[in-house]
Amino acid sequence: MGYKAQYKQKIRSQKTQFMEVRLLLDNLNLLIVPNWDPDICPASEDESGEWKNFRLPEYINPVHYDLEVKPLMEEDRYTGRVTISVNISKPTRDLWLHIRETRITKLPELRKPSGEQVPIRRCFEYKKQEYVVIQAGEELPATSGDSVYLLTMEFAGWLNGSLVGFYRTTYTENGQVKSIAATDHEPTDARKSFPCFDEPNKKATYNISIIHPKTYSALSNMPVEKEETLDTNWKKTTFMKSVPMSTYLVCFAVHQFTSVQRMSNSGKPLTIYVQPEQKQTAEYAANITKAVFDYFEEYFALNYSLPKLDKIAIPDFGTGAMENWGLITYRETNLLYDPNESASSNQQRVASVIAHELVHQVEGPEANLLAF
């Protein structure tokens, strides 16, 4: 078996093991996370509707997400608000989408294409399929053309107890413990970060905003569009509108890292984000990223479709790496290389993982998966 085949087999084995550990962590998380109060959308075993099915319906589809998230790092929790533009191809009274552990904190709001508000009769969680169900007080006619319904939900979640969804981990810098919060959504963990239609064929565009302490910076799939100071302690980072993508590729991070950057031959910034004390160990990754990126663009005769490509080395990352479009997340040992301390086998592994993830950037995100 060649090295490439061995690497792929190892990654598959790691992901299988990680999924088993994830189930254990999620079960433990139920023990350590306090109950939300009030419970706006209480759990129900009602199976009178199509939400009892494992798969989402084909006639309800997201078009666009406006997502705003505010992590409260020292409290290990976050709040958020999402407005989803929804297309409906046949009349219905019910909308349902995925949610897990995150809780709705305000009765959802639904507006017609005309802007008129739709009364909400009932909202509940169907935990068997990890859905939140919103039942309208009237029938919702099918949309046509560019018309959409706007579904707005406010929510809250925890940053501790798991290594999936939106979570916080720590590292030490000059003897001081610091935090980073980041996401890991493959295969079906976006629903833990925010309410969404969490199946890979339900692609949509995203406008993502992060409200975070002024001492932190934020990253996402797309470049920063603007930064706003909100008060003496907080600022808001808003990112450019994304290309259509699946929920498992949505990524954001709040950090206090430094960076190493190279420019591709086509003029795209290729940036590695690492702990300040690890900056020198990112130089090799930056050089390999540029070499492989330039080679792939020339070999496949393709122009990378996003304005930038970021990579970030995250302490306590569950899998080897994750090919989020425009923001690849890595376990530190799979991105960083110290020639003074690491063996040549580590150097080879870093180069192999980088190349593997860059292939995903060239051909992976545009693939049309129906389900995992």
Automatic annotation (TrEMBL):
One Pfam family recorded for the sequence: Peptidase_M1
Active site location: E357
Reaction it catalyzes: Release of N-terminal glutamate (and to a lesser extent aspartate) from a peptide
Top-level class of the enzyme under EC nomenclature: hydrolase
Residues that hold Zn(2+) according to the record: H356, H360
Family that this chain belongs to: Belongs to the peptidase M1 family.
Name assigned to this protein: Glutamyl aminopeptidase
